[in-house]
Amino acid sequence: MFAALGRTAARRRWTVVVGAVLFVALSGFWGAGAFGSFGGGAGFDDPYSESAQANEILAGPLGRSATDVVVMFTSPDRTVDDPAFEAAVTEAAARIPESSYTRLDTYWSTGSPDLVSADRQSTYIGLQLASPEETDNVVIYQETIEDRLDVEGYEVLYGGLVPVNEQVNALTGQDLVRAEMVSIPILLILLVIIFRSLVAASIPLIVGTVVAVGSLAVLRVVGFFYPVSTFSINVVTLLGLGLAIDYGLLVVNRFREELAAGRPVDEAVERTMGSAGRTVTFSGIAIALTLIGLLIFPSRFLVSMAVAIVSVVLFAVVAVLLLLPALLRFAGHRINSLRLPLPRFGRRDAETVPVQEGGWYRTAKVIMRRPVAVTVGLTILLLGAGAPLLGAQWGRPSDWVLPADVDARVVDDMLDNDFVRDPTEIVTAVVQLPGAADSPQSTAALEEFAARLDQVPGVDGAAITATEGDLARLTLGYAMDPQSDEAAEMVRGLRAAAPPEGATVRFTNYPVSLADMLSMLGDRLPLLVLYISVISFVVLFMAFGSVLIPIQSLLLNVLSLSAAFGTIALIFQYGFLSDVLGFVPEGFMDANMPMLILVIIFGLAMDYQVFTLSRIRENWEATHDPVESVAVGIQQSGRIISSAAVLFVVVVGGFILSNITFMMMIGVGLVIAVVVDATIVRGLLVPATMRLLGDRAWWAPAPLARWWRRWGVPESHGGPPVPPLGSGPGAPGAQNPRHHRHDSEPVRASAE
């Protein structure tokens, strides 16, 4: 099937390439609108939790009591006692259409000293916007408030939950452009170094660019059917770019091998897609299946990430299968043209070194002499790297994800340090009573309940703020960090308080929804681990027919993740390298990102593992030598996996340049995990553990072995000859189709 698809795409190459150009042009124009069509940072909460149920009730007649927007006014030389200050703020407030809000508070309308800073030179307008839906309020804010309340002579800053979402949206687009401007030139340089040919280097980059631009269009289409978070734009676009370039590297490398083995161009394209094209499809499906595991979590953020990333991964596979064979057919033997006179390091190029003299081969042989010591030592090292995770404190995104100088972050710091109370720091209790909430009996019971809540440690005042039918709303203040242990203890105390007789009480707002979110993630994480383990086992068993290889792979992935998550905790919770990365550590980490990193890393690790083990298995079937087959397989796969890992790290390293803290967190986690997986795991732990397993590595119970021989899908490279001396990427003889290897020649290192 894949060979036929490659043959068809090559035959109709003009149609495919012209279609791709038109697609990129239309995608760039239409997909650019994706930045304004998604729902900001909404959707982190558990929609089935108590806090979500309370929010649904508050969206009805009872109504919310929240401050969605804080517009801060600061004068360098006046205080709020100056009539000019009052006139300036009052005039600014009058510009806001009354239809856009349900409550507008100023110091002069309320007389509350809570709205004035300690030095009396700052005050704010507090707004509760008209819609109960956060995404609708972002639109209201953009159309009626944002940048419309500026007053000459005053510093005006916009903070609160809704401006946080808007400011994150704006930075997301800027981050993506900056990351691609930095990564694409570096990718081109690295591809030229890997292939030593400008033509060969440009082909994976072209495909990657098509996927990156097209991903925005794919996301916008997905957004018509499911609400997608703006945060997904950077993740899926850069991930799609990285995967497309890695897949392009594999396919172009295989095509050059086929040409070097003497194949005509058309046959080389066909055989390339029949082997490497199959590998790409297998990899993409494996990654997509792993990412689907995010659907275990009900939060809209993680579900939208799963839907969006799976869509883009599958799109990347389709783009590679259709566009690459057309480009390869155009290139033909010119694939090695525009060679650059790059310096040679060492006695010979890596591609011309016989397998037994290769660095990966020699390292594997050394490792396999002491497999127990290497396995135990590296296991202790990687588990030790994960030790900082044991003290992890988890939070959820809010203004802390923004740079320290962005409006919402500055406003939040001012409210914490210069004001008596932060109006956004409240907990709302929704009480459903057995009778009318405004009856004397219910009123007395509610007042007693409010008094009990006021005694909970951390609560700073509790009052009845609304009644409607059999419902009542109580508003509670607090002063601690909503993501602290003290806030979590306060939530437990509130829920432990005895409600009025016959009443049902539901709490909501930040510290409560955080507790519900962490509970949801903690409860469902074991299900995700079980799902990923089953998918990994099934995929690897289908590929190799072994029951021990999947277990080995799962354990090795745990070690990679240990190092990645330990580094994340060290940097983002404890502040190591925070000055270098340019963020202010808050003493906690976002709890959603590890779930995302977990599924991406498992998918990528399965890809690398399948490719490495397929080379080992190929040599084992030929020799049945468990030591030599591992060393040769590691050598044959080491260079291409290292190259793919370096290219992927350059792409996802763009997250580290982000202005949004948890995007940096994704970048650091993926970079560390990929580097560890491609070096320590593939180069050292795989040969050590394979030596411990020996021939048993490929064992399965007899019934499963019989089933696999009939239904399994072993990795196939289409039976091409081992490339001749110097036929790898960038090798001097790669263009000579008549250069064949004689049977008497030693086996050479392959770049694939």
TrEMBL record:
It is found in: Cell membrane. Residues 205-330 form the SSD domain. Belongs to the resistance-nodulation-cell division (RND) (TC 2.A.6) family. MmpL subfamily. Residues 718-752 are annotated as: Disordered. Keywords: Cell membrane, Membrane, Transmembrane, Transmembrane helix. The lineage of its organism: Bacteria, Bacillati, Actinomycetota, Actinomycetes, Pseudonocardiales. The chain crosses the membrane at residues 181-199, 206-226, 232-255, 276-297, 303-328, 372-394, 528-549, 554-576, 596-616, 637-656, 662-685. Residues 742-752 have a biased composition (Basic and acidic residues). Pfam families: MMPL (PF03176). It is a multi-pass membrane protein. It comes from the Bacteria. This is MMPL family transporter. SUPFAM superfamilies: Multidrug efflux transporter AcrB transmembrane domain. PROSITE patterns: SSD (PS50156).
